[in-house]
Design goal:
Elements lengths: L8 H10 L7 H5 L4 H6 L5 H10 L14 E4 L5 E5 L4 H16 L3 H5 L20 E10 L13 E8 L1 H5 L11 E3 L2 H10 L17 E12 L3 E17 L4 E18 L4 E14 L12 E9 L29 H4 L8
Antiparallel strand pairs: 1-2, 3-4, 3-10, 5-6, 6-7, 7-8, 8-9, 9-10
Length: 345
């Protein structure tokens, strides 16, 4: 049996009344490996500066390097506590100490706000109006081997964005039942480069355009004045090293097959239904033959996001790598700021 929580209703109520849980992309928040240099180069969003100054008082201390972990602070950025631990008990104790520190603060400190908190750039601001916003689920799958006693059950979520114009290009101007049309290459490339990745365990890095080969086609199943129903199918292969936030992920190969169905509402110009499944075979070697056994199997499932849910309005992990004019880039791109991490001492 698992350990039962010792939190009382009063403790939980106190936390929910006083604390707001928040999360963000760690590299942007911590300003790369050295936030002082990042700020000097122009990466000075107020929300990031607030975090960087506060986190410097935490478990990793001041200076460069990772600031991953769990932090508690006031709205103005006054540090209350932090930890980086997988132990629920250790995190619980840190939260208790932080709550006690909060209760001991003067009322003025509790109510204080930062001078400004409005950022200069947020990826969420590029969300395509009336576009195709998909929620992606990534999960490792059984490989069918008799030796596989305990399959890897890790999974992850992400989102894929396509502008209204890009989404409409999935449907031919004059759809005819039975006809098959190839999807624009840039749409398949976005999926292959930024979404059909080995990310069930975490960040996997993006492929370059010249590292992906494949296609995606649309077959018209039904047409009437109200809607068009389509079938999507395709396959591809991605090979090489992937570009992560800093440095490169090890070279690998991914073979994929895709199948999906969708309904396009002709009146609204938007998809009312969209489901796309991709099955992938992961190879640790880029030289693996087409019929070679995969080192691991993986699956991706795309469906329409619920834009009324805050979680479903998160930006895609690799939106920075989209080759799309409608994506607004920050004045200083973190992924371009420092291509390689500093040498470890």
């Amino acid at each position: 049996m698992g350990r039962q929580s010792v939190w009382t209703d009063d403790n939980i109520r106190a936390l929910t009344e006083n604390f707001v849980l928040a999360a963000d992309e760690v590299w942007r928040l911590q300003g790369g490996y050295d936030f002082r240099k990042y700020q000097a180069a122009g990466g000075a969003d107020p929300e990031c500066v607030c975090f960087q100054e506060m986190a410097s008082q935490g478990h990793y201390g001041p200076g460069g390097g990772t600031k991953q972990g769990i932090y508690v602070c006031t709205p103005a950025g006054k540090f209350l506590g932090s930890i980086n631990s997988l132990s629920a008990e250790a995190v619980q104790q840190m939260l208790k100490r932080s709550l006690q520190a909060w209760q001991e603060l003067p009322l003025a400190d509790r109510q204080a706000k930062p001078p400004t908190s409005k950022p200069k750039h947020r990826w969420e601001w590029s969300a395509p109006e009336k576009g195709l916003i998909l929620k992606e689920t990534i999960r490792y799958l059984k490989n069918g081997s008799p030796a596989e006693q305990t399959p890897d059950t890790r999974f992850n979520h992400d989102f894929a964005w396509f502008s209204a114009e890009e989404a409409k290009r999935l449907i031919p101007a004059s759809p005819v039942v039975g006809e098959t049309h190839e999807v624009p290459a840039e749409i398949y490339r976005r999926l292959a480069r930024c979404h059909l990745l080995n990310t069930a365990h975490g960040e996997g890095g993006t492929y370059h355009a010249d590292q992906v080969r494949g296609d995606l086609s649309v077959t018209i199943l039904e047409v009437d004045p109200r809607q068009v129903r389509i079938k999507l199918s395709g396959k591809g292969v991605s090979t090489g090293s992937r570009e992560k936030a800093f440095g490169l992920a090890p070279a690998a190969k991914i073979r994929t097959e895709l199948l999906g169905f969708a309904r396009f509402d002709r009146k609204t110009g938007q998809f009312s239904q969209f489901e796309l499944v991709a099955l992938g075979k992961l190879y640790n070697s880029t030289e693996a033959a087409a019929k070679a056994p995969a080192d691991r199997n993986i699956g991706w499932f795309f469906t329409l996001a619920d834009q009324d849910r805050p979680f479903d309005r998160l930006a895609p992990t690799h939106l920075h790598a989209y080759d799309a004019k409608w994506v607004a880039q920050p004045s200083l791109r973190l992924h371009d700021y420092q291509a390689n991490p500093p040498a470890q001492k």
